[in-house]
Amino acid sequence: QLQLVESGGGLVQPGGSLRLSCAASGFTLDYYVIGWFRQAPGKEREGVSCSSRSGGSTNYADSVKGRFTISRDNARNTVYLQMNSLKPEDTAVYYCAANLYYCSDYVHNYPYWGQGTQVTVSS
Questions:
Q1: pLDDT-derived band of residue 2, with 50, 70 and 90 as boundaries?
Q2: d(Cα 44, Cα 38) in Å, to the nearest integer?
Q3: 73, 74, 119: which is closest to 95 by C-alpha?
Q4: What's residue 59's pLDDT?
Q5: Strand order in the sheet with 78-83
Q6: I need a labelling partner for 16 at 20 to 30 A (CA). Which of 27, 54, 67, 101 fits?
């Protein structure tokens, strides 16, 4: 059974850092594009970052460029999202998602989703 499990969320002060992990089980991550999305209360789910299958190509939402870094360790079947210089507006539930084809900000292009991990940035 294909499963994605996020971890690493929590409460952090503005300017702090967190590293989220997305661990895959039941399938080999090498074949999948992985995206990170987030959803704040009352807002639509939005794309944050995406990694190609090899990790050689990545993209980021303008709001997180220069602060967030996506990486993947296919040997560990895990994708990471390093988040630095966090701001209160980064507060959201963060999800990882997988698809077989290409990076996209369109949530419906991703058939596989984790359960999400809460990130709260507050002093």
A1: confident
A2: 8
A3: 119
A4: 96
A5: 3-7, 18-25, 78-83, 68-73
A6: 54
Per the CB < 8 A criterion, the answer to whether 61 and 48 are in contact is: yes
Tokens encoding 98: 């997988």
Whole-angstrom Cα Rg for the chain:
13
Chain CA centroid to CA 34, Å: 8
Question: CA angle, 82 as apex, 38 and 89 as ends, to 5°?
Answer: 40
What is the per-residue DSSP string for 56-115? S-EEE-TTTTTTEEEEEEGGGTEEEEEE-S--GGG-EEEEEEEESS---S-GGG--EE--
In degrees, to the nearest 5, what angle opens at C-alpha 50 toward C-alphas 46 and 56?
165
Strand partners, 92: 119
User: For 15, which DSSP code?
Assistant: T
Q: What is the pLDDT of residue 1?
A: 79
